[in-house]
């Protein structure tokens, strides 16, 4: 079963983008409720950073 880390939106902004990280084999990627998908990463921390960058800008 794939492990998922949900990343909540910043508290000062409305929840327009709900991101999460999803593991696929050896890789982890960020996905958003708007349909955006980040690149596959080997490091979960980098996938989380991709998600945070998407919600900020």
Give the integer mean of the pLDDT values: 86
Helix content: 10-25%
- Secondary-structure element pattern, one letter each: EEEH
- Inertia-based shape: elongated
Query: What is the tally of helical segments?
Result: 1
Strand order of the largest sheet: 1-2-3
Can you walk through the features of this model?
The chain has 57 residues and is of the alpha+beta class. The chain has one helix at residues 44-56; strands at 4-7, 19-24, 27-32. A 3-stranded antiparallel β-sheet has the order 1-2-3, covered by helices on one side. A hairpin with a 2-residue loop joins strand 2 and strand 3 (27-32). The longest helix is centred in the C-terminal third of the chain and has 13 residues, at 44-56. The protein is elongated, with a radius of gyration of 11 Å. The relative contact order is 0.25. The mean pLDDT is 86.
Question: Summary?
Answer:
The protein has a 3-stranded antiparallel β-sheet with strand order 1-2-3, covered by helices on one side. The protein has 57 residues and is of the alpha+beta class. It is built from 1 helix and 3 strands; from the N terminus they run βββα.
């Amino acid at each position: 079963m794939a492990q998922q880390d949900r990343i909540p939106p910043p508290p000062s902004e409305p929840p327009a983008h709900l991101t999460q990280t999803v593991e696929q084999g050896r890789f982890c990627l960020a996905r958003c409720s708007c349909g955006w998908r980040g690149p596959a990463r080997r490091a979960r921390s980098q996938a989380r950073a991709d998600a945070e960058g998407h919600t900020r800008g």
